[in-house]
Amino acid sequence: ITGKGDARFQPLSITDLARAAVIAFGDPSTVGREFLLGGPRYWTYREIVESLGDRFEGGYFLYRFSDPTYVVADAVVRAVARTVLDGRRALVTGGSKGLGFVFAQALAEAGADVVINSRNLAECQQAADELANATGRRVLAVAGDVADAAEVERIRAEAEAQLGWTFEHQP
Question: Measured between alpha carbons, how far is 103 from 95 in angstroms, rounded to an integer?
Answer without folding.
Answer: 8
